[in-house]
Specification:
Layout lengths: L20 E4 L2 H9 L3 E8 L2 E8 L1 E5 L2 E8 L4 H4 L2 E10 L4 E13 L2 H11 L10 E16 L13
Length: about 160
Amino acid sequence: TDFGPWPAGAIATNVRGMDEYLQELGSDACLSLLRSAEVGRIGMIVDGAPIVIPVNYRTVGNSSRFSIVIRTRPGSMVDKAHEVAFEVDGVDPLHATGWSVLVQGILGHVGEIDIEILGDALDPKPWIQDPSSWVVIVATKVTGRMLHRPLDEWVIGAGYL
């Protein structure tokens, strides 16, 4: 069965044809979804208030241990953060379905030697080419969920005008 844009392993084997439901995703599915996107949102507390900023990123590692690499301006809010949350999602408004992955972790800095050695493998290729501080989110907790809709609302393998 083709479930559209969802990566392998993200769809439950017990998909029901009745009510919509939320599926908790495992670490492999979360990592696959993180790798399927290029832009996410990083959240942190700045001056006692929550701030959420869109960033482009790269995911490195495997499902048992991975990190998210971001390049940002030196001295920026992101560069100064310590405990962060990172979120990426996908939405299909036509079918009222979607998914979300939330990573909680500690933000650290990538050293110059690591950048020289691993630069191309780590580089998220920022859209703005400013002097960059390379930061990495080391995941301490990863959760994901996917909203499924009733399959009988979908017409699979057919179409109508």
